[in-house]
Amino acid sequence: MSADMLVPNAVSAEFFHTDAGTAFVDLLINGNRETWSIRSKRFRTWLRRRHYEITRTAASAAAINSALDLFEAQAQFEGPERAVHVRIAEHAGHIYLDLADECWRAVEIGPDGWRVIGSPPVRFRRAAGMLPLPMPQAGGSIEELASFLNLPSRNDFVLVVVWLLATLRAGGPYPVLAISGEQGSAKTVLSKLLKALVDPNVAPVRSLAREERDLVIAANNSHVLAFDNLSGLSYGLSDAFCRLATGASFGLRQLYTDADEVLFQAARPIPGTATHRRPSATGGEATLA
C-alpha cells in the first residue's frame, strides 16, 4: 500500500516543519485540526490504524517506516515553516491558551476579552502527560482563589496572582515563585494547584532534576515546571533555573553522536518549594525572584 493511501481524502493533511527541521502534520479529524509530530508514537499508531481500516491487515514495520520517511521529506522540503508551542502561544497581539481537550480548542485572549475557538492561528503539540483544562466560564473573581490557597497574608496572595498572570505570557521572562515554609504547611499542594490552573499534568510536581539534560527535557514537554523540595541547589542547576526563567538557549550533545548538538531555546515559569525550620506558620510563604 502506498503512503498516500494511509492518509485518505476523507482526512485533510498538511505537512510542515519547525525552524529546527522537526516534521509535523496537521490532520483534520472529525472537524478538528490536530497537530502531531510525524515521528511521534501517536502518529505511527494512527498510521497503523488507517492501514488496518483500509486493508484489514497489519502493516509491516517496513511499510510504516517508508511512509514516515516520505511524510517527513514532504514536511521538510515542501511544507512551510511554522512554530509549534506547548500550552501557551502569542500571535498578532493575542495570547492563546491550549485547552488540550479532545476537540483541540484554545482560549484566545486579547484586548477585547477572551473566547474559546477551534483551529487557532498557532500550532500546539500535546506532550505525554498533559491534561485538559476545564472549559472557562465568564464571570467570577480572582478573589475566590484565596480560599483554596494556604497563604499567611494578603501580600502572599497578591504575589501568587502576579505570578499566575505572568505564566500566561508567551516567551517570558518569568519570575520564579519560591514557596517556603515548615513541613506540613501545604507547600506542595499550593504548587500543584497553581500548575493545575495553567498547565495540568499527570505528574504535577517533579523532584529536583539531576542534571541540565533532565531539566531541558522537562521544559520541552511542559509550560509550567513545578519542583518540590528545593532546599538545596547545585550552582549548575541554580544557573540553569535562572536561564530557563529568563529565556536562554541550551545545547546538549545528541545521543549516539560525537559532534551533533540538540539545541533548545525557551523560557518557562517555575514554582519551587523549600522547607525551612522556623516557628510554626499558618501556610507557605511566597516570594518572587
| Count of individual helical segments | 7
> pLDDT under 50 segments (min length 5)?
277-282
Helix content: 25-40%
The separation of the N and C termini measures 57 Å
Shape: globular
Instruction: Give the percentage of residues in beta strands.
Output: 15-25%
The structural class is alpha+beta
Mean pLDDT: 84
- Cross-sheet strand order for the largest sheet: 5-6-7-8
Output the radius of gyration: 21 Å
Largest sheet: 4 strands, antiparallel
The counted number of beta strands is 14
Q: What pattern of helices and strands is seen along the backbone? A: HEEEHHEEEEEEHEHHHEEEE
Word description of this protein:
This protein has 289 residues and is an alpha+beta fold. It has 7 helices and 14 strands. The protein has helices at residues 3-6, 41-55, 61-77, 154-167, 187-198, 212-221, 235-246, and strands at residues 12-17, 23-29, 32-37, 84-85, 88-91, 94-98, 105-110, 113-118, 123-124, 176-181, 248-253, 261-266, 270-275, 285-288. Strands 5-6-7-8 form a 4-stranded antiparallel sheet, with no helix packed on it. It is globular, with a radius of gyration of 21 Å. The protein starts with a helix and ends with a strand. Residues 277-282 have low confidence and may be disordered.
